[in-house]
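SAMPLE LOG
Freezer: B-3
Tube label: C17
Construct: single chain, 368 aa
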Amino acid sequence: MIVGIPQEIKPQENRVGAVPAGVSALVARGHTVLVKRGAGEGSGLTDAEYAAAGAELVDGAEQVWGRAELVWKVKEPTAAEYPLIREGQVVYAYLHLAPDRPQTEALLASGCIAIAFETIEQGGRLPALQPMSEVAGRLSVQMGARALEKVSGGRGVLLGGVPGVPPGQVVVLGAGSVGRHATAMAVGLGARVTVLDIDLQRLRWIDDHYPGRVETAYSTAHTIEAAVRRADLLVGGVLVAGARAPTLVPRSLVAQMKRGAAIVDVAVDQGGCVQTIRPTTHADPMYLEEGVVHYGVTNMPGAVPRTSTFALQNATLPWALALADKGWRQACRDDAALARGLNVVHGEVVYPAVAASHGMELRRWEEL
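STRUCTURE (predicted):
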């Protein structure tokens, strides 16, 4: 199979779909790998390293998209890439289609096979999403601490405090991968931390790992309201696989937060769990609304691309190999986890949450 690794063109996105080791694994199985020149530079990976691994270096995105049967990306195709997607081509990337109707319609119109990392599900886990959730969770507190600085419009609060001055209050909505890693960072900084979730097992895990260090609460409208009002930093880490994130913090509650408090909504890729969040970029990451600093970067792990690229490929390489070896249809027949990653097939929506979000007909991929 011909596998294409394009250069990511989302603003300030420096990750790349595959590292040289992944290219080498594909080439060793007899596949051709096209890599756009410079695609790995943002992650500290040189063209020479890709060439040594057996990649064929090409000069333009048109060559990658025009020849590849499988396009292995990081982030969703942008509007500039929509015309390059071919019928029957497999697009393998983070897609986040539920809140993104234009992209959904573009993929449907292309006739491609769209496989979303974030909906590959194995044993109740999202293994291709988890490493980036871990990175984003850790970054959320780091970026939140920056948002709280006065120069960013924040309250001027140091999350860890100093002797004689109390630490800041961090509230984390969700105790999944994002929430656990945000909690670890916040505890490490010495902040006061409250974590809310509807899964008692997750809350028990937090209690067991941070005895006496973290307050946990069952998530209801009442407990969310009380926690958000006292937060210096609010981290949104709520996920419904493949679906739009539920709005847990309405504008009216944001307006009741402390002036200069900060919100980092990691769920912004899926529409966000805070009503006032909107997508931003690394170039212009923050804005002030209702007196609160908002951070809404949709590709947070792109801020640490080398770490993120290697972590992502560790998770996505096995399925990339299966897709190249067997073709998408046989690979999905053989692996139910990968089959759950199918979102769009030959002009039809095949993932329930995406169909529900856009009011579109849901089809079974096996019938197409």
